Amino acid sequence: MEFWRIVAPKQEQAFFGICLLIYWLISAASLSGYILGALFLIVAAGRLIRHAVTLFASKLPRRSQLRHYIILCTSVAFFSLLALRGCYLAAVIVDVGFHSDPFEVRSDIGRH
Questions:
Q1: Is the Cβ–Cβ distance between 40 and 85 less than 8 Å?
Q2: Nearest residue to 46 (alpha-carbon basis) of 10, 19, 83, 74
Q3: Residue 74 — φ and ψ, nearest 5°?
Q4: Is residue 92 exposed (0-12), middle (13-18) or buried (19+ Cβ within 10 Å)?
Q5: Is the Cβ–Cβ distance between 85 and 43 less than 8 Å?
Q6: For residues 37 and 10, what is the distance between their CA atoms, to the nearest angstrom?
Q7: Phi, psi of 37 (to 5 degrees)
Q8: Is the pTM of this model over 0.85?
Q9: CA-CA distance, 40 to 37, in Å (whole number)?
Q10: Distance spanning both ends of the chain, measured CA to CA
Q11: pLDDT of 3-49, one tens digit each?
Q12: Do 35 and 29 form a contact (C-beta atoms < 8 A)?
């Protein structure tokens, strides 16, 4: 039970459920849905790694510079994962809102 609390807290599970519901409602369950699912799994793995690193760092002396650098690097990496996931989610929602196809080649661009 402790493992699941660390990897996916209730807020994370609710956020994932809401994102799946949004994708189902806007019918965007294509490649972007799979990528978002993978990003949620990567963030869950990041949470587990952050927890393990925090446990390791707690065994180091309190004023150790190694401890501070380990926690700093881990926090920056985890924040970057969360920011990446948020930016990707926003980009997909905006892209679906404009109904653009990234693989579509149009020859009428610039012609009016």
A1: yes
A2: 74
A3: -65, -45
A4: buried
A5: yes
A6: 17
A7: -60, -40
A8: no
A9: 5
A10: 61
A11: 666 667 777 777 777 777 766 666 655 677 778 778 888 888 888 88
A12: no
